[in-house]
Amino acid sequence: MISRMGGNAMKLSARNVLKGTIRSIEIGQVNAEVVLEVAPGLEMTSIITRKSCENLGLKVGKEAYLIVKASNVMIGTE
Amino acid sequence: MISRMGGNAMKLSARNVLKGTIRSIEIGQVNAEVVLEVAPGLEMTSIITRKSCENLGLKVGKEAYLIVKASNVMIGTE
Amino acid sequence: MISRMGGNAMKLSARNVLKGTIRSIEIGQVNAEVVLEVAPGLEMTSIITRKSCENLGLKVGKEAYLIVKASNVMIGTE
Amino acid sequence: MISRMGGNAMKLSARNVLKGTIRSIEIGQVNAEVVLEVAPGLEMTSIITRKSCENLGLKVGKEAYLIVKASNVMIGTE
Amino acid sequence: MISRMGGNAMKLSARNVLKGTIRSIEIGQVNAEVVLEVAPGLEMTSIITRKSCENLGLKVGKEAYLIVKASNVMIGTE
Amino acid sequence: MISRMGGNAMKLSARNVLKGTIRSIEIGQVNAEVVLEVAPGLEMTSIITRKSCENLGLKVGKEAYLIVKASNVMIGTE
Question: Which CATH class is domain C16-69?
Answer without folding.
Answer: mainly beta
